[in-house]
Amino acid sequence: MPDFAPLPDPPYYAVIFTALRRDDGDPGYSAMADKMFDLAKQQPGYIGVESTCSKDGLGITVSYWTDEAALMNWKAVSEHMLAQQLGRKRWYSHYTLRIAKVERHYDGPEGR
Amino acid sequence: MPDFAPLPDPPYYAVIFTALRRDDGDPGYSAMADKMFDLAKQQPGYIGVESTCSKDGLGITVSYWTDEAALMNWKAVSEHMLAQQLGRKRWYSHYTLRIAKVERHYDGPEGR
């Protein structure tokens, strides 16, 4: 997975998912995460995703979508719903999810 | 630093900063990062911050602000400007920064 998502002309949508993993070492987690990244890519309106996780289990994943309909469709994809359910029941001790409209952006460093 | 930022009633603003660090091991970096987290807290309109970094140097930091004026003020704080400059010149091989209006949010898992 590339580190950075593309920067299409705003506005577009960001889903900011911050999650603290339970310390259970479940090997099913990373397989499911990989599967969800692959599945998200195939959805209409998908722009990209940026994701990182520290060694203490705090992860932030931001997925980007062209519009609100696209992210609502993704939320309702059946395999993704199963992953959401497992996340609630098994993998995360806490999470927050925010839907935000990206109004502008820039990147850097300048001149590289 | 707590893992999760508060969830005030939307709308509010998110600044999504994704950055790949250069592999230079500069010890000044984490001292500056800590200083910036402390300084941000003191700014008007600050809500909170969520930040994580993987061992390969990809970090995502999302700071939350009550309104656009607050985040523009923070961008212009002089010590923060110095940190931004060092980030461009020394610390990051690439970064993106997105300004987004949070329209709604939720947290979980339900029932815990």
Order of helices and strands of chain A: EHEEHHE
- How would you describe the shape of chain A? globular
- Count of DSSP-assigned helices of chain A: 3
User: In order across it, which strands form the biggest sheet of chain A?
Assistant: 2-3-1-4
Unreliably modeled segments of chain A? none
Let me know the largest β-sheet of chain A.
4 strands, antiparallel
What pair of chains forms the biggest interface? Answer: A-B, 41 and 41 residues
**Straight-line N-to-C gap of chain A:** 22 Å
List the quaternary state of the chains.
homodimer
Give the number of DSSP strands of chain A.
4
Structural class of chain A: alpha+beta
**What is the residue-averaged pLDDT of chain A?**
91
The helix content of chain A, as a percent range, equals: 25-40%
Radius of gyration of chain A, whole Å: 15 Å
Question: Can you describe what's shown?
Answer:
- The structure is a homodimer of 112-residue chains.
- The first copy, chain A, starts with 11 loop residues before the first strand and ends with a strand.
- Chain A is globular, with a radius of gyration of 15 Å.
- In chain A, a hairpin with a 4-residue loop joins strand 2 and strand 3.
- Chain A is an alpha+beta fold and 112 residues long.
- In chain A, helix 1 runs antiparallel to helix 3.
- The first copy, chain A, is 33% helix and 38% strand.
- A four-stranded antiparallel sheet of chain A has the order 2-3-1-4.
- Chains A and B meet through strand 1, strand 2, strand 3, helix 3 and strand 4 of A and strand 1, strand 2, strand 3, helix 3 and strand 4 of B.
- Strand 4 of chain A pairs antiparallel with strand 4 of chain B, so a sheet runs across the interface.
